[in-house]
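Posted in: Structural Biology > Protein-Ligand Complexes

Title: Requesting predicted complex, adenosine monophosphate in pocket

I'd be grateful if someone could produce the 3D structure tokens for the following input. Sequence and ligand are given below.
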Amino acid sequence: MFNLILFGPPGAGKGTQAVKIAEKFGWKHVSTGDILRAEVSSGTPLGLKVKAVMETGQLVSDDLLIEIMESVFVNNKDVNGFVLDGFPRTLNQAQELDLMLAKHGESVTLVLALEVDETELVKRLLNRAQEQGRKDDTEEVIKNRLVQYHHHTKPLIEYYQEKNIYTEVYGVGSIDDIFNQLVSQISAD
Ligand code: AMP
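-- Reply #1 --
Done. Output follows.
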């Protein structure tokens, strides 16, 4: 099974590229942000619990995310690949993911990071706020989401570099050019 993590700050284009990669290789796209937003809009107990946290740009608790991922894996035993988009976001989540995969004789195959500078990220996120009306794309919340990224998520780069499974792709340019670069990294693996 190919277990791909699409890594990068908010606004780097992970969602867009994850959909295309999943389609090309026939893998399962897992966006924890989409899963959580669906819970919020359906008003489930989980959704009610995470709504306020998401709206301020904070991270939802590791325990909840790990629980969600366990059920994703258990319910998708037949797939031959995963594209993880937005998970893991903390060191604890990364370690738990490794344990969870190891239980099934699996491991993270590759971490592909989209590299985009901060000015471009803020510009993209503000645009997305206008286009999609996401509640967590206001300027203040965007700043907080980037702070969360730097504080909690960026340290994962070192974690995966040490495992020799981390590669960066420049994430500014046409969607198709970036996609082609990602595909060649996957194919080289
Ligand atoms: P995203 O669409 O990936 O930017 O996620 C939107 C929001 O969902 C984040 O700002 C967090 O509040 C929450 N979220 C998504 N994935 C995670 C995760 N792996 N760990 C913690 N919170 C998450």
